[in-house]
Specification:
By secondary structure, the protein is an alpha+beta fold. Helix content is about 25%, strand content about 25%. Helix 5 packs across helix 6 and helix 5 packs across helix 7.
Length: about 400
Amino acid sequence: MILEMKVPSPGESITEVEIAEWLVQDGDHVEKDQAIAEVDSDKATLELPAEVSGTITLKAEEGDAVAVGSVVCLIDTTASKPEGNPDSNTQETPAPVVETPSPKVDTKSTYASGTASPAAKKILAEKEIDASTITGTGRDGRITKDDAIKAVPSMGKKIDTEGRGVKRTKLSMLRRKVAERLVAAKNETAMLTTFNEVDMSPIFELRQQYKEIFKEKHGVGLGFMSFFTLAVVRALKLFPAVNSMIEGKEMISYDFCDISIAVSGPKGLMVPVIRNAENLTFKGVESEVKRLAIRAREGQITIDEMTGGTFTISNGGVFGSMLSTPIINPPQSGILGMHNIIERPVAVEGKVEIRPMMYVALSYDHRIIDGKESVGFLVAVKEALENPQEFLMDNAIEKALEL
């Protein structure tokens, strides 16, 4: 029996995926549920498991964009599983491979190669870009209007790559989608960033005193993310415009807080969502952060787990960032950037003291969030972090930590 394996739907509104990598080769024997490929959608990278056991025949190449429901491989269930690998001692030693340089090919094979269409020529002239520096994607290498629109003026002469190594790597569908969303966020929102700094001493003292007891009791560490998440939830309740987004001519505000957290995964940045963070305790937040981070790093995160957030927290501090302007995660209207903690001299009640300080940044959409609200929001976050016992724990530390 020959089974046709089709691309399953990774989620609502997704119509095609890209074959990122085949994990097996044509003619291999595969077992049922064995991961045979990694496929990229515009939201996540997912593994494609074999539906049955048998010999596989691949019907798509790596890098191919295939529609949901299309056949990507065949599995012959009647083929018997091959015996074990032959003794490696009996295998012949392969002859050395001598590489010869490939002859240089003249890519200007027709009169159209490198020639700009009239519309493209006008755009390139306005940008003051030489057509000879553009690689055309049209027929026979013609430079199209789209090529001209995407062309970026060089800050110097074209890089001479002859005799030097150059590597071209196709961007994954996920990375391309992230790039599109970042550009859209810059172009389609009135994004501004406001900054503040936080004295992390109170949180350091709480963690020093309770982190071992907390971990022993709950099986997760008492990290910074729970303090920041709960501080953000409090600030969102005080300034609901930050927990809103624009849809057409309307502003939609939410009475719940689904907090997206930026996590670095093997395929790039992913942003899983902590649902209903307003109902979570320190234990609940830390457990959810750990669960989502593990799933993201192991490539098991689902699309549903990465969509629908109302506000984002990004922690560039784990990579050593001292200060940055985070980009809004559309359609959200705000993102909080955390940074590294550095001991600095600060004035405390007229005296200079060394304190662990962190810069924080709030990027926001000025179309619906005014300066007063953005500054007030960030001050509320600072206030809660510098006095967590009062604002986040209701002056009952052990009860808040469920110890």
